[in-house]
Every structure is written in C-alpha cells, then in structure tokens.
Design a protein that fits this description.
single chain, about 525 residues, alpha/beta, six-stranded antiparallel sheet, about 25% helix, globular
C-alpha cells in the first residue's frame, strides 16, 4: 500500500484524469435555470465526462443572457443570479453531480467586479473617503493587457478597455480586498460544495501583481480547507515562461497559484485554422508536444476546440469550404480524437457533441451561446464519438498519464519519462502517436482526409513501448482497437509492420497490451 500526502504543489488525482464538460445553463435548456441544467447531469455522466465547469452563476448587473452578458459582470459574489434560481438550487446541483461521481468547478472573476457592485459604487461615490477605494486600481500598471488596452474612467478607476468600463480591476495588493475575495471563494467551497474554480482572466492579476498577491495566497487558503480542489487559471499554460503560474514552480519562495491553465498556443496556432494537410500535421505534432517543453511535474494544461469566447469548431471547419453537412461534422472528429488521447486535459463546450452552431448565421454568440437543440443533426455522428473518446480516456491510464520528470526542475525541456511519442505513418494526412505505459501502451491513429487511407506502422518504436521483458519476437501481444472494441493478437515479430485502415476522417485508438482490452460504456449513444 502506497500512501501519498498532498503538499501545496499537489493537484488532485481526479484532476489528472479530468474530462471537462463546460456547461452554460442559459444554453442548456429553454428554461435556462440551474434546476433545468441539472437535468443534463446524467447525460454528461453517460457521455463519459467527470468534471463540470459551470459558467458564473452569481448575480450580475443585468440578467445573465446568451449574448454579451453571460455572467462575468458580477454585483454579488455570494448569491446566485435570480434568473438562474437560488443558492439552494445551486447547492442541490452540486450534490446531484456528486451523487453521479461528477466534480463541479465554478467560474469566478478574480480580476474584477462589476462597476455596479456595492464596493465599486461606494468607492465611486466617496472616492478616497471610501473604505473600498484601495480595493480597486486607480492607475495603469505596466503589464501586458492582452491586446485589450488599459483605460481609466472619469473617477480614475482602471479597467481593460476591451472589457468596457463595466468591469473594474481589483487591487490585489490591498490586504482587505484580498481577504474579502478569499472569503468568497471559501464560501462556495464550504457552503456549496464546489470542487474548485476556473479563475477568469487569471492572466490579469498575474501580470499586474505576480503570484505573491493573488495566486499564492488564494491557493494557500483554499488548499488548506479542501486540498483536492482544482484551480484552473485562464492564462497561457504551455511554453517557456508559463511555468511561473503553476504551484510547483517556486521563485524567491513564492509558488504559483494554479493546478492547470490553457493551451492557447495549440488552439490558436493549430486547431482553429487547421489545414488538413501534411504541413499542418507536422505543426500539430510539435505543438501537442509543446516542442519538448514541460512547465513542471504537476503542471496540467487544458486543451479544447470550442469555448464560450470562441466560435464553434464546425464554423471554422466549414468556413471557406464547399462541403456537405455530414462531411463538416466528420472533419471535426480526428482532431477531437487527438485532444482526448494526447497529454493535457480535454474540454468540450456544451453542444459540441451534437454539432450545435452549424448553419446558424450571424455573430458567433448566436452559434456558441444560443439554446441548444440536443437532437441537432450532428448528434448521430458526434455524440457516440465523444462518448467513446471520453470513456477510453477515463478507463485506460496510458491516455491520462501525466509526465513526471523528477530529475528536473519545473520549466525544462527533457525527453526523460516520455509519455508521448510521434509514430511515423509514411502518409501526409494520417497522424499517429503512442502513449507508452507498462503493458498497456496507448496508440492513436487518425485520418485527416476525406478518403479512406491505409498505413503500415512500425509499433516497436525503437523499443520505447513498455512491455514486460521488452518486445519478444515470439511473444504474444494484443492490438486492441478500443474505438471499435475489436482485438488482434500479434507476435512481437509482427509489431514492426502493422497495417491499419481508416475511413474518411476516421480514428483508431488502441492499446498495445499483454491483455485483450475493451472499453465499457454502460449507456452507449446510438450512432
């Protein structure tokens, strides 16, 4: 029996195995309430996800809507927005999720409050005589504003211009403000039972103040009361320099604040505008592997194809192409297979599993925030696909393993303890990679083209596969196609020349194993 004790840098084991479902109650039903959203919990469970990221539920300056007011203009950090329901409704939602084995992380705004929050109103009214004056910024701080610009309103309150003067930047160097916000975060954990937070615009306070005034004190306080929470920061989580935000990176005695952050580089550089050709696959492979750079031994990074801020992937993958509806949905499938079986935490935005947004004209908000038709035309193709991917990832540790390089400090380039190996396919539109794991190695092969492809793979991969005693020529091994639940028994001498056939935009996800493996799905979606 091995017993491990968490330290401040630890992230919970359930987070390392996370399949995140991002839920927006306003889009999840015509009622648009938390109680109605609870009706989706069993579906999310059946789909194979184990973590729900809930959009902000707190009272906003105006009723939360599906356009430009999705919940980040908060005027009351302690109460649920009345259009969503009550605090008890949300507490019930979390309890129901927990009963199904689901974790819930809540979206919050450490960067700002609404201009109409009572603290802000008092400070705007009484200026320096207000006890809340120093809770907000009153000068622009030299820091990268992410292209949004720094602005001051007429009363010298700082805000990001691109967010408008409705969102006032907090001053995290003020101890009273910091204490008040930490108390807010404690409340939703201790009284509502949430399992962590998605920290909106984490990059703002991080860049303006460093980790000493926000990241570290928030983490220290919350991990003290519930060590196994997940703290997901909206900030760059891959590439040189990003290690500073993670808890296992220490500079001058100050650790970073988050367990996980975003892989924005992968999304913006490769996924959104993927070109479905050989150069794109080579670039995708390099980005998936972070160019060999790992932010830290406990650093998790979230990977996604859609979000509340970006357009639907079906929009990007159909834009500028003359293709039919069926092909549009299928084009999204191989990329999803990659994200769910590569290192990182996969996330989908509600409706992604039915292809919601395809064919909806106008602004992106109409596609990515509108009320979802759960029987939309993409369901018959995509729902079974995502269900297989989520269950495969959840059931086979090769795909959820996280690089543990104990020989180096956080923020290193290293090939030690490799958990990801590119596998040459000899075909410019077929991408493959392995996830070495003792006696149950993972293998993903996807076809990014609109026609059937066949490839011959050398699965010995310079003996990097982890099989007991190494690959023996007369040894018997199983090539288990988890995606289709079929098995092939091969001799070790045959592993250097394995033929794989893939349909148009098809996926094959295997274990190369000592046993015949199958994925178990209790309530399969009918394709």
């Amino acid at each position: 029996l091995t017993v491990s004790f968490p330290v401040i840098a630890s992230n919970p084991s359930w987070a390392q195995k996370a399949r995140i479902y991002f839920l927006f109650p306003k889009a999840a039903s015509t009622a648009g309430t938390i109680n109605a959203a609870a009706g989706r919990l069993q579906n999310i469970k059946d789909l194979g996800f184990n973590v729900i990221w809930m959009m902000p539920v707190m009272k906003n300056a105006l009723p939360i809507d599906q356009n430009y007011g999705p919940g980040y203009n908060i005027v009351d950090f302690s109460n649920v927005a009345p259009e969503y329901g009550t605090n008890q409704d949300f507490k019930n939602f979390v309890s129901q999720a927990h009963a199904l084995g689901l974790k819930v992380i809540l979206d919050v705004t450490p960067n700002h409050s609404s201009r109409l929050h009572p603290w802000s109103i008092d400070a705007h009214t009484f200026k320096t005589n207000s006890v809340y004056w120093n809770w907000y910024e009153h000068s622009t701080i030299t820091a990268n504003p992410n292209g949004l610009g720094d602005c001051l309103d007429a009363d010298q309150f700082n805000y990001y211009c691109g967010f408008s003067d409705q969102l006032m930047n907090f001053n995290w160097s003020d101890v009273d403000m910091r204490t008040a916000m930490i108390d807010v975060y404690k409340y939703w954990i201790t009284q509502m039972g949430v399992d962590g937070y998605r920290l909106d615009v984490y990059w703002g306070p991080h860049r303006r103040y460093g980790e000493a005034f926000m990241g570290k004190p928030v983490r220290d306080a919350l991990k003290h009361i519930k060590p196994d929470i997940l703290l997901l920061g909206e900030d760059d989580g891959t590439g040189s320099g990003t290690e500073a935000i993670y808890a296992d990176h220490v500079t001058g005695g100050i650790n970073g604040g988050v367990d996980a952050a975003y892989d924005f580089k992968l999304y913006f550089n490769q996924i959104r505008n993927f070109n479905f050709a050989s150069p794109g696959i080579a670039a995708l492979n390099n980005e998936i592997d972070n160019g060999g750079f790992y932010p830290g031994v406990n650093a998790l990074y979230m990977r996604f194809m859609e979000s509340q801020d970006e357009d639907r992937i079906v929009y990007f993958y159909s834009n500028n192409f003359v293709i039919d509806t069926l092909t549009t949905f299928k084009r999204t499938m191989p990329m999803a297979s990659v994200l769910f079986t590569a290192p990182g935490l996969p996330m989908i935005w509600n409706g992604q599993e039915v292809g919601w947004g395809y064919g909806i004209p106008g602004a992106k908000e109409a596609r990515n925030r509108s009320t979802i038709n759960w029987n939309y035309q993409g369901k018959s193709i995509l729902s079974a696909h995502y269900q297989k991917l989520a269950h495969i990832r959840g059931q086979f540790p090769a795909f959820t393993q996280h690089k543990r390089d104990t020989n180096h400090d956080a923020g290193v380039t290293s090939a030690d303890s490799a958990d990801f190996i590119s596998v040459p396919t000899g075909n410019g539109v077929v991408y493959a990679f392995a996830r070495p794991y003792p006696d149950q190695n993972g293998l993903t092969v996807v076809n990014f083209s609109a026609i059937t492809q066949s490839v011959r793979l050398d699965l010995t991969i310079a003996n990097d596969l982890q099989l007991s005693g190494g690959i023996q020529p007369l040894g018997s091994y199983f090539l288990n196609d988890l995606y289709n639940n079929t098995h092939r028994q091969l001799y070790g001498s045959q592993l250097d020349s394995v033929m794989i056939d893939l349909p148009a935009f098809g996926s094959a996800i295997y274990t190369i194993s000592m046993t015949a493996d199958s994925v178990i799905i209790t309530n399969p979606v009918l394709a």
